[in-house]
Specification:
The structure is a homodimer of 139-residue chains.
Chain A: H1 6-11, H2 18-28, E1 34-35, H3 36-44, H4 52-64, E2 68-72, E3 78-82, E4 88-93, E5 99-103, H5 108-118, E6 121-122, E7 128-132, H6 134-137
Parallel strand pairs in A: 4-7
Antiparallel strand pairs in A: 1-3, 2-3, 4-5
The structure holds a DNA duplex (30 and 30 nucleotides).
Chain lengths: 139, 139
DNA sequence: GTCTATCTGCAAATGACTTGCATTCACTAA
DNA sequence: TTAGTGAATGCAAGTCATTTGCAGATAGAC
């Protein structure tokens, strides 16, 4: 179990190909939110034949396996993060584009309310709130 | 001042063209979240020469004027709603796609916390929470 | 080693917008 | 009321992230 996700792939009858290994390593090396294109660029530094379609397809199966989570950060592309690493939320400033991370516990009461009153099981790792940061608010 | 938004347009030196009037009327007739394409289809029933670019451009200026607000409902397109009508949030079920509306006040405490602790002025009309509704949760 | 369903690479397709530009037109000032 | 003009429209072409079809390659079971 050297490579993270190896087991998760095997459990689903999915193959651990060199391409997938490189993509998994690239993802593991990051703590932030990355786009498919960024992972593609990163892997290409080591393996120049990496294909962008393969990155997209790999991210898709990793998401289905629950290893990776999608987020919308308001730019026109999907961003991903390693599910286990990022249990937090995002404040996105519509003025300067800054992304502020929020602790998970801040939304715990809300999550409980949603479950109790609406029967809704919130995927709280996905919450993104738009607005203006202190600096941009004055403008 | 028969047409909503007429004043807001005039204040910005923007013209009230027939196309904009039709788009404004189409928007006013709706209480839900609509895409540019939907407004386009709706207006075309009355005026078959309506142009999709014009719809996009009009929605853009209406957003700048604050009359209309953008939301991300998780499908791959931008959705809009009439700002005054929709002071609420959305729970989106990732199982069945259902959109549940939430009352605005539910997030008021969170908004206050964000302002106090982070200096962040949350645009609370934009909040969307993904998860699973009661029906889809059992699966 | 063999076999086969799964993967990959490539190129082309998709789909939601966006843009350039020539033409048309809503408003303003005379 | 009517020019004049900057703004708006229509159309076609362009973007850009992402997806897909398909033929050839290959991981992993046996």
């Amino acid at each position: 179990m050297v490579i993270p996700g190896e087991q998760a792939l095997a459990e689903r009858g999915l193959r651990l190909t060199p391409q997938r290994m490189m993509i998994l390593e690239a993802i593991e090396a990051r703590d932030d939110h990355f786009s498919a294109e960024e992972i593609y660029a990163q892997v290409r530094q080591r393996y120049s034949h990496m294909n962008l379609s393969t990155v997209y397809r790999t991210l898709e199966i990793l998401e289905q396996a629950g290893l990776v989570t999608q987020t919308d950060l308001g730019d026109g592309r999907v961003r991903y993060h390693w599910t286990e690493k990022s249990r937090h939320h995002h404040l996105i400033c519509q003025g300067c584009g800054q992304v502020i991370d929020l602790e998970e516990c801040l939304l715990a009461p809300l999550k409980e309310t949603l479950r109790r009153d609406y029967g809704f099981s919130a995927n709280i790792a996905h919450v993104t709130i738009f607005g203006r940061c202190a600096k941009c608010h004055e403008v």
